[in-house]
Amino acid sequence: MGPYRDIVILTGAGVSAESGVRTFRDNDGLWEEHRVEDVATPEAFARDPKLVQRFYNLRRAQLPTVQPNDAHKAIARLQKELDGRVTVVTQNVDNLHERGGAEGVIHMHGELCRVRCVHCGMRHDWTTDCTQATPCPSCGAAPGLRPDIVWFGEMPYHMDLIYTRLRACDLFISVGTSGNVYPAAGFVAEVRRIGHAHTIEVNLEPSAGVSYFEECRHGMAGELMPPLVDELLKKGQ
Ligand code: OAD
C-alpha cells in the first residue's frame, strides 16, 4: 500500500492521554468528577452557568501544565515531511497538536482557548478565566461569553471541509478515539463508502468501530505513532 499523498488523521482524547489529559470514557463515566450531562450540554449551561464556566476554566488552566507527547510530535512531523497533504481533524479541545507543531488543525468540537459571545457571535482567543461577569470584548454584553466548545446536542464545526477531505484522502488514520460519538465515529464508514483510501486504527484497545478498519495497531499512541510515521515517510520517498 502507498505511497500516500493525501492523509486525514482523526484524533480523540487518547492522543492526549500520555500528556496527562484525562479521557472521557475511561473513568467510570465521570470526566474530572463530573457527569458529561452536567457540564457539556447547552441545558447544563442554562441551568448552572457558573459550574460550567468553572469546569472549563479549570480545563483551560491545566493546558500550560501539560506538554505535547510523541504522538502529537509524530503527527506534526508527518505533516511537515510528507510529500503531500496531511489534514489533522481533532475532537480534542486542548491545544497540544498545535504546540506539538501541527498546522491548520481542524477542531471539530471547538477549543478551550476560545470563547464565543452568545449575543454578537464573535469569537475571542482566551487563555484566562471567563465568568458570567466577564464582558464580551466586542459588544460588552455580560453575561454573554461561553466556552467555544461544541456540547452534546450542538452541531460540530467545519463538517463540509472535513467531509471534502475525507472523500479526497488516500489514507485515513484514527488515533485515540473510542468511536462512540458521532459524527466523528462515522468518518471511517464514509471513507470506506467512497472506497479508495486505506484505513488504520491506532488505539489502546479495539474501538467501537474497529471492524471498519482494514488495519489496526493497538497500544499507546505515543509508542505507535512515531514508527507508523517513519513507515509512511519511507513509503512516500
Ligand atoms: P474517549 O474517552 O471516548 O475515548 C478515548 C479512547 O482512547 C479510548 O478508546 C481509550 O482506550 C483510548 N486511549 C486511552 N489512552 C490511550 C493512549 N495512550 N493511546 C491510545 N489510545 C488511548 O474519547 P473520544 O473518543 O475522544 O466531546 O471522545 C469523543 C468525544 O466525546 C469528545 O470529543 C468529547 C466527548 O464527550 C465533546 O466534548 C463534545
From TrEMBL:
Cofactor(s) needed for function: Zn(2+)
Keyword Cell membrane in annotation: no
Listed EC numbers: 2.3.1.286
Binding-site residues, Zn(2+): C117, C120, C136, C139
Molecular function per GO: acyltransferase activity
Enzyme class (EC, first level): transferase
Positions annotated to bind substrate: Y56, R59
Record-linked Gene3D superfamilies: SIR2/SIRT2 'Small Domain, TPP-binding domain
Domain Deacetylase sirtuin-type positions: 1-235
Keyword terms of this UniProt record: Acyltransferase, Cytoplasm, Metal-binding, NAD, Transferase, Zinc
Superkingdom assignment: Bacteria
SUPFAM superfamilies: DHS-like NAD/FAD-binding domain
UniProt-listed PROSITE patterns: SIRTUIN
Predominant place of localization: cytoplasm
Cofactor descriptive note: Binds 1 zinc ion per subunit.
Annotated active site: H109 (proton acceptor)
Annotated compartments: Cytoplasm
Substrates-to-products reaction catalysed: N(6)-acetyl-L-lysyl-[protein] + NAD(+) + H2O = 2''-O-acetyl-ADP-D-ribose + nicotinamide + L-lysyl-[protein]; N(6)-succinyl-L-lysyl-[protein] + NAD(+) + H2O = 2''-O-succinyl-ADP-D-ribose + nicotinamide + L-lysyl-[protein]
InterPro entries xrefs: DHS-like_NAD/FAD-binding_dom (IPR029035), NAD-dep_sirtuin_deacylases (IPR050134), Sirtuin (IPR003000), Sirtuin_cat_small_dom_sf (IPR026591), Sirtuin_class_III (IPR027546), Ssirtuin_cat_dom (IPR026590)
Binding-site residues for NAD(+), renumbered to this chain: 12-31, 91-94, 176-178, 203-205, 221
Domain notes: 2 residues (Tyr-56 and Arg-59) present in a large hydrophobic pocket are probably involved in substrate specificity. They are important for desuccinylation activity, but dispensable for deacetylation activity.
Family listed: Belongs to the sirtuin family. Class III subfamily.
Protein name: NAD-dependent protein deacylase
The species this protein was found in: Kordiimonas lipolytica
